[in-house]
Specification:
Layout (H helix, E strand, L loop, with lengths): L2 E6 L2 E5 L3 E4 L20 E3 L5 H4 L2 H8 L2 E5 H10 L4 E5 L2 E5 L2 E7 L15 E7 L2 E5 L9 H8 L4 E5 L8 H11 L3 E5 L11 H8 L4 E2 L7 E3 L1
Parallel strand pairs: 3-4, 4-5, 5-6, 10-11, 11-12, 12-13
Antiparallel strand pairs: 1-2, 1-14, 2-3, 7-8, 8-9, 9-10
C-alpha cells in the first residue's frame, strides 16, 4: 500500500517502502497540516526554487538525513548555501534513487530565489512499490503531457495545480487530465492565498468521467 498525504498548498508526503516529501512548504503556509519537525523522510523532491516549494526542505534534510532531489542548478544552489545536506542534481529524464524510480519532467513556470533565476521548473513521475504518482509542480498545461502517459503510464494519481494566476486554473487542469489519462487526480496549489482562490468542485465537474477527482483537505490521505 502507498499512502499520499496532502500537507497543504503543493506539499505531499508519499509513504510506502520509502517516505518521500514533495515541495515541503510548511513554515509560513497558512494551510499547512504539519510542522517540519513532525515529519520524517528518506527523499525530498523539489520542483523549483520558489520559496513556497523549497520551503522547509533544507531544515528537514538536515534533521533527518533525507536526500534532496532537484534540478541540477537548484541542487547546487542548495548545497552551496547550506551545510549538512546531501543533494542529487538531475535534469529532465529518468533515474533511480534508493529503489525509487523518478522521472524529472518539464513544467512551464519560472524558478528563482526571489532575485535570481535558478534552473528550470520541473515535475516528477514517481514510481514506488508499483504505484505511479505524477506531481506536476507549478505549470501551465502543454500538449507534451500526453507523452508522460505514453512513456511512463498508466499514472495512478496525478497531483495537479488548479489555482490559476501562477499555474493552471480548473479549465486548463481538466485538459491536463485528458492528456495524462490518470486513474485518479488530486487538485493542489489553490486557496492558500486570495489570488489562487478556486472551487475544486468546479474542477471536478470539468473533469467529468475522465478520471476520479479526489479532493483532499490538508492532512487527509489517499491510499493506493
Amino acid at each position: 500500500m502507498v499512502k499520499v498525504k496532502f500537507l497543504g498548498h503543493a506539499a505531499f508526503l508519499i509513504e510506502g517502502s520509502k517516505k518521500i516529501l514533495v515541495d515541503p512548504f510548511l513554515t509560513g503556509n497558512p494551510k499547512a497540516a504539519a510542522k517540519p519537525e513532525e515529519l520524517e523522510a528518506d527523499l525530498i523532491l523539489v520542483t523549483h526554487a520558489h520559496g513556497d516549494h523549497i520551503g522547509d526542505a533544507v531544515a528537514i534534510a538536515q534533521r533527518t538525513g533525507a536526500k534532496i532531489v532537484a534540478m541540477y542548478d537548484v541542487a547546487n544552489y542548495l548545497v552551496e548555501n547550506n551545510s549538512g545536506i546531501t543533494t542529487i542534481g538531475m535534469n529532465y529524464g529518468p533515474t533511480k534513487v534508493d529503489g525509487v524510480k523518478i522521472v524529472q519532467v518539464p513544467a512551464w513556470h519560472s524558478s528563482s530565489d526571489g532575485k535570481y533565476s535558478i534552473g528550470n521548473a520541473c515535475g516528477y513521475i514517481i514510481e514506488i512499490d508499483g504505484v505511479k504518482i505524477y506531481h506536476a509542480g507549478d505549470t501551465f498545461v502543454f500538449s507534451d503531457m500526453a507523452l508522460f502517459n505514453e512513456l511512463y503510464g498508466p499514472i495512478d494519481v496525478a497531483l495537479l495545480p488548479i489555482g490559476g494566476h501562477f499555474t493552471m486554473g480548473p479549465r486548463e487542469a481538466a485538459k491536463a487530465v485528458e492528456l495524462l489519462k490518470p486513474r485518479k487526480v488530486i487538485p493542489m496549489h489553490y486557496n492558500t492565498w486570495p489570488p489562487i482562490a478556486q472551487d475544486p468542485e468546479e474542477f471536478k465537474r470539468l473533469v467529468g468521467d475522465k478520471a476520479e477527482v479526489v479532493i483532499l483537505e490538508p492532512g487527509e490521505s489517499l491510499e493506493l
